[in-house]
Amino acid sequence: MLTKAQRTMHRLLDLQREIAQARLSRRELLKMGLVTGGGGLLGMGGAWLTKAGAQVVILPSPPTTPWVEALPIPPVLQPKSLGTGPAPNPAAHQFYNRFLPQKTYRVRAEEKPHSFHRDLIDSPIWGFDGIFPGPT
Questions:
Q1: How far apart, in whole angstroms, are the C-alpha atoms of residue 100 and residue 96?
Q2: 74, 133 contact by CB (below 8 A)
Q3: Strand partners, 131
Q4: pTM of the predicted structure, to 2 decimals
Q5: Selecting from 1.10.10.10, 2.60.40.10, 3.40.50.2300, 2.60.40.420, what CATH number does the domain 62-136 have?
Q6: Do the beta carbons of residue 130 and residue 124 sit within 8 Å?
Q7: What is the pLDDT of residues 13-71, one digit of tens each?
């Protein structure tokens, strides 16, 4: 009895074989949407389909102590003033006066190291204002 993942892998391998036997060009595959829409033709679950019955090695997670980190509560972002830059041009948009800005926020996407757990090394993340998960 095959598992659902094994049945899916066999179906994808059969489809790959049929495509190879039909000798379809990349252009024809693109026209049929099999390259972008059928992502399963390339791989499944992060494992490349190389041959039927290939073993997928799943590495164990590093050991960590559960429930020792406090739930991160992101800070509340405070509105900023518009500053003293050049005045906007009202003629640049047909509804300039219809939707006036209520509050302005400055948020920067930055790469910073982040510690997800005290037992793990820091990982580089892209966070808003350099924090994860970012301000609310």
A1: 7
A2: yes
A3: 128
A4: 0.41
A5: 2.60.40.420
A6: no
A7: 887 788 777 777 777 777 777 555 555 555 444 444 455 556 777 888 888 898 988 88
